[in-house]
């Protein structure tokens, strides 16, 4: 086991290069299953979930590996089964369902696992694929789907599910006829997936809006593709600059996909300036609380909820955070309280009353973004903070201790 030890209270100053987006890379790598010929990806983060995905692709019949700073994938003899041992560790594994059905007419995928942040059922994925001609059975913890060639359909999502939109987008790219996805997710990562499929020959329009139209093609061909920057990593480091009274330049990113985060941080008094392919962030003279409601894109992202809560803990006044996406995503609250934070919970709503300074303490991460909030709190706290169970953190932040150390943080990883 490993943990992070942080000696807090030091302003962060310097430059951090934002890595490629994990949430974009995972579905795009899965989309390799639908492609004939080799694909080369650049700007892929070296993360635990990425390595898990490459292992899964190999099990499914691909060659998949890092080659220097890029990832190369090519389908060979595909097989339809994604085993429990891998799927249980990463929820995004269920995204192989759509491309396998489209390519092989069969997929047997273990029910997914991942972070314990609440219920994230896959019924919206299955319902849409059924409308496209697939049938499903639940067999000993596996979803077993079968079909002849998938056909186009008009699919109305009850909720703008990101994973569901991605799974059906990949399936529809090779389906016969036209598919229309209504109330589709609008996240930039969905747009990046659509842009990749288009680069491979797919016919897709409307991505980035709530109505996506796909004209199925017979075949997708390989290409070279650069993964978008990680907007959540960028938002996390924006909070870090403000919390530590520092000044950071974040490179390899823009504010284009961070509009809701940018607006809320500015409302709280954070000073933000954009240059070409970089963002400059500092605390500002009057950092204060604000009210936040998590919503599907273009609303405030649930993946930034824990980080902005940590920022509010050391801001003047109070703020309210309402979590509308996941029902169990306040598990970091108790750990922040251990560091002195003043947070009151009422169901899916948290009221944060700012204090002058947090105090270092041993804390335990419960999920990926909770881990990030505890690291932020440790950077701003007086004394030593130990963050345990950082394997969650390694799922979504590339070399976080190296990046933070380079801008002045006292942070190190140790085994225990």
UniProtKB/TrEMBL annotation:
Active-site residues from the entry: 115 (proton donor)
Chemical reaction(s) catalysed: phosphoenolpyruvate + UDP-N-acetyl-alpha-D-glucosamine = UDP-N-acetyl-3-O-(1-carboxyvinyl)-alpha-D-glucosamine + phosphate
Every Enolpyruvate transferase domain range: 7-404
Alphabetized GO MF terms: UDP-N-acetylglucosamine 1-carboxyvinyltransferase activity
Positions bound to UDP-N-acetyl-alpha-D-glucosamine: 91, 120-124, 303, 325
Keyword Signal: no
GO BP, sorted A to Z: cell division; cell wall organization; peptidoglycan biosynthetic process; regulation of cell shape; UDP-N-acetylgalactosamine biosynthetic process
Pfam families: EPSP_synthase
HAMAP family: MurA
Function according to Swiss-Prot or TrEMBL: Cell wall formation. Adds enolpyruvyl to UDP-N-acetylglucosamine.
Name this protein carries in UniProt: UDP-N-acetylglucosamine 1-carboxyvinyltransferase
Native organism: Desulfobaculum bizertense DSM 18034
Lineage: Bacteria, Pseudomonadati, Thermodesulfobacteriota, Desulfovibrionia, Desulfovibrionales
Gene it is expressed from: murA
